[in-house]
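In the previous chapter we treated chains in isolation. Here, by contrast, the input contains two separate entities that must be folded as one system, with a combined length of 404 residues.
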Amino acid sequence: MNNEGLLIVISGPSGAGKGTICNNLVKKNKNIEISISATTRPPRRGEEDGKSYYFIGEKEFIDKIEQNEFLEWARVYGNYYGTLKKPVLEKLKEGKDVILEIDIQGAVQIKNKFPDGVFVFILPPSIEELKKRIETRATETKKEMIERISAAYDEIKKAFHYDYIVVNNCVEKATSKLQAIITAEKCKLSRNKHLLNIGGRF
Amino acid sequence: MNNEGLLIVISGPSGAGKGTICNNLVKKNKNIEISISATTRPPRRGEEDGKSYYFIGEKEFIDKIEQNEFLEWARVYGNYYGTLKKPVLEKLKEGKDVILEIDIQGAVQIKNKFPDGVFVFILPPSIEELKKRIETRATETKKEMIERISAAYDEIKKAFHYDYIVVNNCVEKATSKLQAIITAEKCKLSRNKHLLNIGGRF
C-alpha cells in the first residue's frame, strides 16, 4: 500500500491569491505542508528567512544547482528561485502532502520528474481584478508592475500544462476546491490499484 | 462556457453501500439527482414504482431497446435493467449533475458514449464485511446470496475501468469523498479551457 504524500504544485500569476489560499489550506489541514523555496532576491518588508524563503547568496545558490540539490530552479526578473530536493522528499515519505508554490518554469521541471504530482493553476476572477491586486501590493516600481502584468498574461496562456484550474473569486471557496482536488486525487484508481488485488487484500 | 452538469457513474458490488452513499450525497447537494433505472425484475418489499425503479414489463423493455431509448441496459440474473436516455440528457443540459448507479456492464456502455463521464467504484471495507452485508439483507435465497458474493469478486477484479475508488469504511467519509471527486472534476483543465482564452474572457 502506498502511503506517500501528494506533491501538489500551485502556480498562477502574481496577484491571483496563491499564497493566501495555500496558507488558508494549511491552517485547516494539518497533513499539508508548504515547501519553503530558496531565493537570491532580497527580502521584502515583513519576510523572514526560513519562513517566507531561505534567502541565500548567488554563489551558494549556483553551488547547489551544480550539486543537483534542487528539485527545480529558475531565474526570474534577475533573481534565482528554487526548491531544495531533500526536505520535500522526506516529507512525502512521511506521508505528508507537500505544496510547492512555484512558477510555470519550475512546474515543467517537476512534471518531468514527478508525473504523479498534482498541478493546479490559480486564476484571478478577472484581468481587472488582477491589475488592481498587483497595483495594491505597492512593493514594486511602476516598471516592475507593468512587467508583472505582462508576465501574468503570458503565464495564463501557458496554463494548459496544468491538471486543474481554480478561479479565486473567494478565498474560502477556492481553498475548499483545492482541498477537494487533494481528496479526489487520493481516490484515483492509479493510486489505489492495490485495493483491487483481492488475493492480497481480502 | 460549459455549464452542463456532470454524469457520474457509480458501481460496486452489492453490499458495498452505493445506495446509502448516493442518497446521503443527494440530501446534502441539491444540484445532484440520481437517475431512476427501468427494470423488469419484480419490486422488493418497500420499493415504489417511479422512485426506486420504473418497473416495466419485458415486452415494453425490449421495445425500448429496439427504439434506442436506453443509454445503457443489461440483463442481470435473468432480469433487464436500463437507463432511459431522455431524462438524463435533459437534466445534464439544465446543469444538474446526474448519478447513475449501475453495474459494470452498463458502465462500459456509458464510457463509450460519454468519455467525459466520471466513473467511481465503491468498495466495501473488507470481503468479510461484504458477505455480512449481503447476508443481512436477507431478501434473497441462499443460492442468490452465493451468486452475489461470487459476482462481487468478479466485479472488483474488473474495477480497473474506473477513474476513482472510494472505500466505504464510513458512510459520512465516503460521501465527502464522492463530493470532493465531483468538485475536483469540475476544476479539471479539460472542463475549463475557456478560462484560459484571455481574448475571450478578459
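The mean pLDDT of chain A is 89. Chain A touches chain B at residues 120-121, 123, 126-128, 153, 156-157, 159-160, 162-167, 176-177, 179-181, 183-185, 187-189, 192-193, 195-196, 198, 201-202 (CB under 8 Å). Compare these points with the single-chain example from earlier in the chapter.
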